[in-house]
Amino acid sequence: MGKTLLEMKNITKEFPGVKALDNVNLVVEEGEIHALVGENGAGKSTLMNVLSGIYPYGSYTGDIIYDGEVCQFQKIKDSEEKGIVIIHQELALIPYMSIGENMFLGNEQGSKAAIDWNKTFNLADKYLKMVGLSESSRTLIKDIGVGKQQMVEIAKALAKNARLLILDEPTSSLNESDSKALLDLLLKFKQEGMTSIIISHKLNEVSYVADKITVIRDGSTIETLDKTKDDISEDRIIKGMVGREMTDRFPKRHDVKIGDVAMEVKNWTVYHPQFTERKVVDDVSINVRKGEVVGIAGLMGAGRTELAMSIFGKAYGSNITGQLILDGKEVKLKNIKDAIKHRIAYVTEDRKGNGLVLTNPIKINTTLSNLSELCTKRVIDQDKEYQVAEDYRDKLKTKCPTVEQNVGNLSGGNQQKVLLAKWMFANPDVLILDEPTRGIDVGAKYEIYCIINDLVAAGKSVIMISSELPEVLGMSDRIYVMNEGKIVGEMAGAEASQESIMSCILKS
Amino acid sequence: MGSVSIKDTLKKYTMVIALVVIIGIFYIGTDGTILLSQNINNLLSQNAYVFVLATGMLLCILTGGNIDLSVGSVVCFVGGIGAVMMSKGINVWIAVIVMLIVGGLVGAWQAFWVAYINVPPFIATLAGMYAFRGLSNVVLNGYAVSISNKTFLNVFGGGAECYIPDFFHGENLNITCVLAGVIAVAVFIVVSIKNRISATKKGYVTTSVAGFYAKLVIISVVIMFLAYKLAGYKGIPTSLLWIILIVLIYHYVTTKTTIGRYLYAVGGNEKATQLSGINTKKVYFFAYTNMGFLAAFAGILTVARAASAQPTYGQFYEMDAIGACFIGGASAYGGTGSVFGAIIGALLMGVINQGMLIMGVDANYQKVVKGLVLLAAVIFDVMSKREKK
Q1: A354 to chain B nearest CA, in Å?
Q2: How many whole angstroms from its chain centre is CA B240?
Q3: From the CA of A350, how many Å to the nearest CA of chain B?
Q4: Interface test with B, best of A309, A360, A394, A404 (most B CBs within 10 A)
Q5: Domain chopping of chain B, boundaries
Q6: Do A369 and B388 touch (CB under 8 A)?
Q7: pTM recorded for the entire structure
Q8: With contact defined as beta carbons under 8 Å apart, do A310 and A268 qualify?
Q9: pLDDT tens digits for range B192-244
Q10: ipTM
Q11: Phi-psi category of A4—alpha, beta or left, where left has phi over 0 and alpha has psi -120 to 50?
């Protein structure tokens, strides 16, 4: 050990309006397992995308020095030629193709005129053995489990002659024994001289395999811990991840009276819509009072969105069981229309994908979920509609030339305001806001927080789902912590801290 | 609040400008023949079915670039049923109502598979295209059936008498027709100005004053020009009245009603629409059922014009309608487009057809030109979207 294989120097990468990486430095030695940890959105994946050429040279600043030479990768193929192979969080396998076909997709064996299938499958079998799988490479991907699929991903990387293996949350969809097998495989590869970078949220796993741990926070490297020299306990790592100062990024809420329970969910269980044996939300019981902001913290994939959408008129999931109580009365919501009628609103986390019709103007988006309010006999009163859109533009300070402007041309923050306006116009009592400030700048965030404050001041109830811990802490009266479909903690907003939430999640 | 800029206005009316340019080219190419009264009359009556079908097709396309391939076959099937009924002496109005109901049912049949069973529209309507072509043959027994019912032909635009009679008996000029043009212009101007006054009063954004009056003048001139030209031949063809009626109704539906709004929303973002509490399945069902209904209406116009029904009628009508929509600025991905756009598209295709016919261009090359125009229009749509990003 000791020879530096990779050095990333002063990497800065900007997206429109956001600095995703700010002078990040990373040094990886040959033959080590290097862990990259940080909160959601800290910039880990962005950094790896820079390294593998997904963001081509020129779209970032800084140097990548790999194996002693400065590299300027234009595309993934360039980095793969050097032996840098990235395995993404989402499995990139095609279910109805065989293992062998998947493994050599884009790297087909044989001549230009024809693929040599015998060679393909023979080679594939060889690599499968290396990762400890006994399946034939002619088996279809859909017929093997998720754990084995992840192994196939690794075998696929080996087939590309990987020297530096990058794994982005490789165990996020695996159960414990599959995760253990994968981590042991990494340790075995290490002994054979392979270098790996692993991105993970599971700190116990990081402590288990990593030689060095680099902590990234808000797009900058904070520190690198060395197993042989530093303390790498989970608490130590958590401190590095969240140790940021809280300033007055959140507007004060004055004298909002918290009233009776507005909505309560009891023993709520939801199964996955396609894989109907998989529980996504598991026996969840939560409530929210009038005038209260309840935060739901947790990592991505904890089941928070699924919980919210299943409450919102069964917009997600199958075989939903449990009680939904509104204002003390149990109700059964058949569909989304029903939910809106019962004055529940769900403001989606994916405003472009699920929230707004980007090709339509602001006014049309604003009124879409409550169009009947403007109608006489299904004919829309367009003057009234314009007035409504204008009112919300004023109220929420949406920056746009006119409400006739297409929503697709607005900035993220203004789109979010239009989305909020849309659901405020539906006149709900309970608003479920799913990541209401994702991907918008600090100023717009502050304005969104003000809107939330106004809502609860008017006696509405707000459930705020957020992956940004400071936001959950800064805005919530009460916080639920959710992990793997279960509520694993509940605490008063004033008592909660980033450490207490993180340890709730990580130790559950 | 600023006014809408000239550049945006030009972009909005690109296809109208293209239409004018193309008419200009053919005017020169045919030494003015294309703008003779009779030719304008023919252009409108001959393409009546395209206008009707394009209107219905637009609603399908709005839902997400979905098309209906069966309309040509449905035109033929419904036309065949009507022709056979009338040849057996059944009352003309009963026949018309049966035709429209059959069209609606055919539409609902396909709409059911598309909306509730999630059969891709392309497949569901391809199946319909084969099936109803076959059934047309069955209904007509493989032969042509001629239609002699005078009322039917006059009302729906076939034979020599399918014009609004001139109540004033002008010598060389149909006075009723000119008068109708004047009334149309007057109504148009009054309504436009009234709308504008009420809009400015409420402080809404409006186009510049010059732009507004320019538009007013141009459209008035076009209406008067058409009325004058038609008056110089035999007057207002009845089929034109039907076209105007359909266009106005569907313009209203798409711009002023909730179902119209939902069509655009589904095409723009289906998931967001669903999450807004709207039953998107019903929207699809409406679009395709309506298409069947309008196909039936186009079938009525088609057999009336030909004064007969034949098992080969309606072939490639679906393509004309689809082409008209896309040329008229409907997006192949859904969510954008307008009834007037589709009509402009249909007119453009019609002008090209007729212009080339008069110039004596080989029929095979006519198809080549039509294909290229369609391609160019869609390339334009794709490119102008890319520019924005």
Answers
A1: 4
A2: 11
A3: 9
A4: A360
A5: 3-162+237-388
A6: no
A7: 0.79
A8: yes
A9: 888 888 877 777 666 678 888 888 899 999 999 999 988 888 888 999 999 99
A10: 0.76
A11: beta
